[in-house]
Amino acid sequence: MELLNDMALFVEVCKVMSFRQAAENLDMPSSTLSRRISHLEKAIGLRLLHRTTRKVELTEAGQIYFERCKRIVGEAKLAHEQLGEMLSKPSGTLRVSLPVDFGTIFLTSLLVEFSELYSGINFEIDLTPKLADLVAQNIDVAIRMGNPPDSNLIAHKLMQFRGQLFASPKYLEQHSIPEHPNDLVHHECLSFANNTHWKLYRSGEMVEVKIGARFMLNNVGMTRKLAILGQGILFTPYEVVQDDLKDGVLVPILSEWQGDVLPVYALTETRLLPAKVRVFIDFLQERLINSKP
């Protein structure tokens, strides 16, 4: 890459046959430009330019090198321009793996918006809670909640959540309203089977509560529905239930308490991303990174 850059500088000098003028055109010091050309000559092992106080002339080797470099540098610039066009109008099939709940709650409308911006991209979406094998399954990007796995995958942070407590007015009418997290031991709580200890934080204070529940399940959508039907207290990010709060079918409880930070990442096999993957991740970060934690 450094050699190609020096070749491009050499071509600019040859176009005007002046270090001063070329340096002005390139917006760089003449001394730096002269040093880079000297470095190029040293790397090649031949003098390319005769320098005098009045003028610059090509040597025989310099003339041959200039003719070759013009084509190489021109091709490189054209390649960059074409790649820029690809980035502005990426196309192809984008293969995405993501959890069911996150996909249905957060990404459905964003996918529609993204597809309208990039009409050349098609989608293959695998909804699964398990981390896909990106290479074996030919997955471009996997979106997962929680800290990224200890692997060679590259993690691109999209957003983060903090769980809060909600219940239906019907449930709270039938049960006492909890005034402290410790009161949750006397309530029905809706949770995943692997999450029976809820940690809640307030201004540096942490309380861990072992909750009891009649309903243990692994689907956020169904858990939310059960909460609306008055079956217990829900511990979930605000974004999951914001429409329910507006409709009044759920209300917040213990509002000053929140759960651990839960990050969301887009995982890729490499940092060298195809245009379709790069614009997708950039789009999600722009829409999600500043979401309410």
Automatic annotation (TrEMBL):
Belongs to the LysR transcriptional regulatory family. InterPro entries: LysR-type_TF_proteobact-type, LysR_HTH_N, LysR_subst-bd, WH-like_DNA-bd_sf, WH_DNA-bd_sf. CDD domains: PBP2_CrgA_like. GO terms for molecular function: DNA-binding transcription factor activity; sequence-specific DNA binding. It comes from Acinetobacter guerrae. Residues 1-59 form the HTH lysR-type domain. Keywords: DNA-binding, Transcription, Transcription regulation. Pfam families: HTH_1 (PF00126), LysR_substrate (PF03466). It comes from the Bacteria. This is LysR family transcriptional regulator. One of its GO terms (biological process) is DNA-templated transcription.
